[in-house]
Structure formats: structure tokens, C-alpha cells
Fold these 2 entries.
Entry 1:
Amino acid sequence: MVAHKLKISKKVWLTKNVFGMEFILPRIRPYPGQFFQVRVNEGFEPFLNRPVSIASYKSSRLLLAVKIVGRGTKMLSMKKPGEQLELLGPFGGKFKPARKRSLLIAGGIGMAPLRFLAEYLSARKTVFDLLYGVRASDEFVFRNKVGRMADRAIFVAERGYQKKETVVSRLRRMDLAGYAVAYACGPRTMLIELQKLNLPMPAYAFCEDFLGCGCGLCMGCAIMYKGSYRRICVDGPVLELGGIDFEV
Ligand SMILES: Cc1cc2nc3c(=O)[nH]c(=O)nc-3n(C[C@H](O)[C@H](O)[C@H](O)COP(=O)(O)OP(=O)(O)OC[C@H]3O[C@@H](n4cnc5c(N)ncnc54)[C@H](O)[C@@H]3O)c2cc1C
Ligand code: FES
């Protein structure tokens, strides 16, 4: 397990409750979906580290984007540039995306790991489209950055746009014939709805459920997958959407 003590080199607010933190971390070779376990404090409060996906990694600059949902992320949001944080990792399997026309489906903060996937695909000249949905139209993150990398980008919102839409309702109306593969990250409810759609191409979910240790030891992240338990932190977090049993 590799622990990095890193200074926050930059901090930006991306929406009213999502912030980005940048660190300088040379010599890692991360794969899409990989994440760091962020130690929120020096002491044991909160006890568990918080998993955060790699949102971007370029020229040794590591970007994490965090949505405030509870105590740990609130405490992280109060850190300032120049302060030091301990990051363990990167964790997660070495998922190698196909170099085929892809569809990226993001919901809310699920855009964070998909931004890194978009960078990864772009660097390999793999064409992809983006479908990105949020609850309210002021909740988009990295909209322009990823929109520019995509061949075609579609943004939908449940509030704030003239037309109320979700990624699932939009997908129902889309012609999906040209895509060889899809990648999705977002709330569990979105992944469940996507699974029900039975997409015509292979689809992969970037799972962001609860973790414990983050490194394969505690079984706290076990998920039923293709008939047996798998650990999201080491066997995932990228798993075939169709193989996940969300009811167990
Ligand atoms: C592999 C992985 C990658 C992740 N990447 C990111 C990322 O890039 N950016 C980001 O903002 N978040 C990410 N998350 C989610 C993030 O880790 C949690 O939101 C965070 O740990 C919550 O900590 P907290 O102390 O603020 O919330 P808690 O006080 O622990 O919980 C507050 C509320 O949030 C809910 N909650 C907590 N954790 C999760 C979770 N994992 N999924 C859904 N609801 C949760 C709880 O049920 C509770 O209602 C990722 C999670 C995983 C497993
Ligand atoms: S979080 Fe401990 S095994 Fe996955």
C-alpha cells in the first residue's frame, strides 16, 4: 500500500457543494476507475478513509473532485491550498477500456471518474460520445472540459432546463446502434435503471458504493457479481453492469 503525503496545490469550487483539489504526484500510471483513499484527518475522527476517484492525471497533476455529502467530505472541503493530506493508493483494478466507439453515461458527481476515462480515451484517439445528467442544471461538473473531448455531448437535467429529462429517459430515445461499448457512473438508482434498459452493447459500471479498508482486506465492499461475491475495491470498481446483482 503506497501512502503519499501531498500538499493541496490548488482548490476550486466546481458547484456550490463540489470542490476540486489538485496535487503534484509524479510517477504513477493510473487506470480509469482507480481511486485514492483520502485520510480526512491526522487522528481517528473519522476513522475510515474516504474513497475519491481520479478525475484527471496529466503531467504529474492529480485532480480529485469531491461532493459534500456528510461529515468526512465536509471536513475535506475545509482544507486549504498548502495544507497536507495523506492519500493512499491508487487502488482499484487495472481496467483497460476498449479502443472502440464508446458512450460515456454520467450522473451527477459520477462525472469525476468519467472525466479521467475521457482523457484516457482521447489520448488513445478513441472516439466517444457523452450523455451527462444532473438533478438541477447548476450541478454539472467538468461540462465544458469533457464536452470538448467528446465527439457529441448531450446534457440533461431534471430541473432548470426547459425540458425535464434524465439520462435514462434520454437513452430510451437514442439510436445506440453505433456504439461498441458503454461506461456508466452515477448514483446506484441510475445504474439499476440502466441495467433494466438492457443496453444493446457491453456496458460497464464504475461502482462507487461504500468501502471500508479500500485494499481488499475487510470485505466491507462485497457485491454479488456473476454469482459470487467480489470486492469493489480490488475486483472493481469497474464491473460489467449486467453481472451486478443490486438486490443482494
Ligand atoms: C471507488 C469510489 C470512488 C468514489 N469517488 C468519488 C469521487 O470522485 N467524488 C466524490 O465526491 N465521491 C466519490 N465517492 C463517494 C465518496 O467516497 C463518499 O461520498 C464519501 O466517502 C462520503 O463520506 P462522508 O463522510 O462525507 O459521508 P458519510 O457521513 O459517511 O455519509 C453521508 C451520507 O452519504 C451517503 N454515502 C456515503 N458514502 C457514500 C457512497 N460511497 N455512495 C453513496 N452514498 C454515500 C451515506 O449513506 C449518508 O447518507 C467514491 C466512492 C467510491 C467507493
Ligand atoms: S473495502 Fe475492504 S475489502 Fe474492499
Entry 2:
Amino acid sequence: MAVTVSVLSKWRLASICDDGLNGPSLQPRRGVVPLLNPLADGTTARTAATLTAMMTLPKSPLFRSLAYLAAIAVCLLAIVAIRILEPADKALPVHGVYDELGHLLTAVVAGIGVRALRLPIPLWSMLLGGVVLDLGHVLQMMDYVNALEGSTRSGSHSIAVVILLACMGFLDRRRADIWLGIAIGAVSHLWRDMGTGTVALMWPVTETVYGTLYRRYLAGLAGMAVAMVGSAALLGVHVQAVDQEPSP
Ligand SMILES: [Zn+2]
């Protein structure tokens, strides 16, 4: 009996799954023995309808947006937690671990916005871009470059380097999406470093360093990501409304 119930449940789910998210049919598949039709009674039909609703829910632009907003909130909380939990008397490697973790989470927040807008940019490329500018610190440690006056960073932390990374996409056109992701991640890196210190944004034109408040960095990051998710929701409901219009 238990085996029979299990088989019926699997068939019922399969019937719904096979129709995907585009309006699942509650009709049994062709070739199924009528005696096994699990939708014969009202209770089963209601159960199937509930399952159908559960499976179509992720398609809703508003549900998707809520899920993205929740993910953004979790990342922002983690960024704040890193700031609070970082020991005051940290050694450089310890600070490095906390800082890179913060950069990765910052890139993830930007990546959630990009994902919400369904832009074809791999998240991993944004994560790579979120830490790549700190190769400048490695060059500093190897005495190839020096930190600029008023900052702990070199010219590696500048818009010129971001533009250079983005322009790589024009040379390596098959991977232009990846270079774009790296460039976006690098922008998120600059923004975080401005919140935790200063960077020479306009290097090599000028070595003037720029910074902002940490809470302004958080607010700017959250605002940008929420705006992207909100834009995606608006576009989603627009597409749904157009799709549901009766054809002339
Ligand atoms: Zn940095």
C-alpha cells in the first residue's frame, strides 16, 4: 500500500513538473491507466492545485524580488558583522582575511542586483573583480609600487584600472561578459575601500585621495542593489501584463 501511495505521489508530481512553470496541466499523461488517475477526487485535485501554486510561485516577479531582497539583507548583515567582529589589534594577514571577505560579500550584493536584472554576467567574475585590485597590495609588499600619500593603497585602486579591465572585453570579445563582471566587481571594491579608507580614484591624472563614511558605503551599496531588484520587479510585472493581454 505504501509503495502504491509513493508511486501515485511521484506520478502526480511528475505530471505537474513535466508541464513546467508555464501553466501545468492537471490532466494525466497519455497512456496512463485511468484507474491510476490520482485527480479523480476533489481532495487530490486541491492538493495538486496547491502544489501547482507552490511551483509557479518562484515565477512571480514580486516573489523573486522578495527573495533577492532577503539575500541582500543577509549579505549586508554579514558585512556589518565582519566589521564588528574584526579584532582591533589584528595582524596584517588577519585584517586581509576580514577585508577580502567584506569585498566578496560586497560583490555578492552587486551580483544579486545583476542576477535580478537577468544580465548574462557570471557571478564568479564579479567575485574575482571584487578582490583583484588588491593585487596592488602584493606589488607594494614586493616594493614594485608605493602607497600614495594619504592612503594605504597604490594607483591600482583607481578608475583607470577599472576602465582597463572593462576594455579587455573588447580585445577578448568571447569573454566580454567575464571582463564586464570583473570590472563591476572592481567598482564594488573601490566603493568599499572608500568606505573603509581612501583611494586615488583619478590616478594617474591626480594622486588626490577620496573616501567616504562607512555607513554611506553601506547605504549606497544597499540602495544600488535594491534599486536593481526593484527595477527587475517592475520589468517583470510589465512583461507578465503584456503576456496576459488577449491577442487581437
Ligand atoms: Zn583594496
